[in-house]
Design goal:
The complex is a heterodimer of chains A (about 280) and B (about 280).
Chain A: E1 2-7, H1 27-53, E2 58-62, E3 80-83, E4 101-107, E5 126-131, E6 134-136, H2 138-148, E7 153-159, H3 160-169, E8 174-183, E9 186-190, H4 192-206, E10 222-228, E11 245-249, E12 252-257, H5 260-268, H6 277-280
Helix pairs in contact in A: 1-4
Chain B: E1 2-7, H1 26-52, E2 57-61, E3 79-84, E4 100-106, E5 125-130, E6 133-135, H2 137-147, E7 152-158, H3 159-168, E8 173-182, E9 185-188, H4 191-204, E10 221-227, E11 242-245, E12 248-253, H5 256-263, E13 279-281
Helix pairs in contact in B: 1-4
The chains are: A alpha/beta (about 280), B alpha/beta (about 280).
Chain lengths: ~280, ~280
Amino acid sequence: MKVYIVTDMEGVAGISQWDPRHQGDTHAGALTRQQFSRLLTEEVNAAARGFFAGGATEVIVNDGHGSGMTMEPELFDARIQVFHGLQRPNYCTGLDETCAALASVGTHAKARTTMGNLHHTMGKDVRDYSFNGISVGETGLQAFLAGYYDVPYVFCAGDEWAVREMQELCPGCVGAAVKFGTSRLSALTAAPEQAREIIEEGARLSMERIGQVEPLKLESPVLFREQHEQPIFDPENQDKQPAGRRIIDCRTMESEAETVKAVLDLKYGFDPDWTPVWKREG
Amino acid sequence: MRFYMMTDLEGVAGITGWEDREDESIWNALRRRRLSRLLTGEVNAAVDGLIAGGFDDVIVNDGHGAGSTMNYELADPRAVYMHGLDRPFWLPFLDESCDATGAVGAHARASTPNANLAHTMSGAIRRWSFNGIEVGETGLQALIAGYFGVPFVFAAGDVHLCREMEELVPGCVTVAVKQGTSLLSAVTLAPGRAREVIREGAERASEAIGRVEPLTLDSPVVFRDERKEPTWDEEQPGEATRVINAHVREIEGDDLMDVLMRMYPRYERGFKPEQWRPGVRA
């Protein structure tokens, strides 16, 4: 049984500020980034321990934050495999029908969750994303992509506000609330050591939910709508858009395709036919 | 039994200079890491003592500077930690549900002769008082706690701060970990010894509940804000109820919280977060 974990940094216990990589090249920032990296990696390791204890035979981790290499390889649990790096061939590479479950660690709430610590969706400019009218953040988007492969989203570790968001979207999934956002830049947090215990316990428990939690499904065609805070689209550029992409107004773009996978490939310009080498060679 | 602990950096043993977040040298980045460890060691000692003394719920406010000064990789897993910027209030979660409050790493108020790193909030302030009662940061904490009926029972820091709090809230337990000899010098205990005495003192803190009266003020409350430099202008009083002269303003309100909301308009009036603790949400 293979579990796919998407990781992020903003929902990790002990972190309440944005990744210092955005704040210039300072010595203090470099040390902070290394610490954040360790904090994240140990939460992922805790989740992996829980999944293995709950019956997982394989854990694939998507190092999802920022430039895609935020985790600390020197601390990886020896049993996990980590997908990391830039210039990725598609969204959530390796998440497919061979996975038994999707989980997220370091999860933050979606944009406009007032009290969510470091709440955002992708960039800081996104106001809302939705699929067929259902509002999602990053993790909701991933849960829908997993649903395309009939994979259920079963576990959310992160800010209490992210846990609530995901439990509303995917009833029955297990949450590990390791902090409680009190504003965008502040939170009441568990100490990392306690957070790891909670995550391990929650991850183990969530393995029992496989088969109980429904994979998230959407009717075809899938309409993806993105709204931005700033006016970034020029309606006069409509004729330069690929088929299926519509500029609604200067803040709103819609993408329409048959499936969630197709709509994400369209939005991000990924090759829909890309196949990993392990599948090409059997 | 719930304890609310405020923390600061300037009253920690082994620290005698300002943090200086502007100096971006490698030396200062490493020095700040050390300050962070020293603070966290004292907080852990206090948490350990408080729990030994009967508290089973400890909220720590990472109060210094940018609001995330502690080293969470070292933090005691039995407490929860309020950290970050952009807070809805100076002391979130301090309310009538707490049984007692106290401070670690505390420094004396501005203008205290010979006190190490004495100041009140910022370097601009010469003297603060509420209804004639002179307070520094820790005194203000005791007043806010008193507003909610919570006694201030424990202080660790510079001996000058200890005397300040003994006078303000007779019967509280104080632990002097250093003796200020001037603004920038002190005779300090070794950090290991400081942690021992903090732990011992914190263990006795619960005994002071009932002995120490919550510090309260009669209505109306008049806040007097005296600055080192000429700051206030009668023709543009801002939030001031009265500009007394170029150095002094007064703000008057119905009660302490009313005055605080006038002092800090960015704070959310009536902010009352739900009681939250980390855990698995199944």
